[in-house]
Q: What sequence folds into this?
């Protein structure tokens, strides 16, 4: 009985660790892809946007938020599938690989949508504004988050 209990505990902890790792990895990637506060601040506080620019960028931000939320929901669903697949087989099964692939696809799509959003906002700016914006984007993409 003791060995069975130990095995069940090991399996339960393995599943929990795998799910936590997948969830943590997804949260890290999503956190890296969101606009840092400095980019948002630069857009709305430091670039002296005109009313028209502010209106257009606001529309871009609303559209992006819808896409971002849908992709984040897809990543959560993929992580739930991953947890279920690990729990079902306690091995690296085709279902586990499928859930991982689903998660990676959603993360990749979110990164693409984030970059497209940044580039769309850039198109609204004047040439003077783009230099400051570009610096902020470059810093956001190359900063060490730790």
A:
């Amino acid at each position: 009985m003791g060995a069975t209990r130990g095995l069940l505990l090991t399996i339960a902890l393995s599943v929990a660790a795998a799910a936590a790792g997948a969830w943590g990895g997804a949260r890290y990637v999503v956190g890296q892809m969101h606009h840092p506060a400095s980019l948002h601040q630069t857009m709305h506080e430091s670039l002296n946007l005109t009313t028209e620019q502010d209106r257009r960028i606001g529309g871009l931000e609303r559209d992006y938020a819808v896409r971002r939320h849908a992709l984040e929901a897809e990543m959560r669903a993929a992580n739930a599938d991953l947890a279920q697949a690990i729990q079902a087989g306690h091995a690296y099964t085709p279902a586990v690989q499928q859930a991982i692939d689903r998660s990676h696809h959603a993360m990749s799509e979110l990164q693409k949508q984030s970059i497209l959003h940044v580039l769309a906002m850039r198109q609204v700016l004047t040439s003077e504004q783009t230099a400051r914006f570009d610096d902020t984007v470059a810093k956001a993409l190359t900063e060490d988050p730790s």
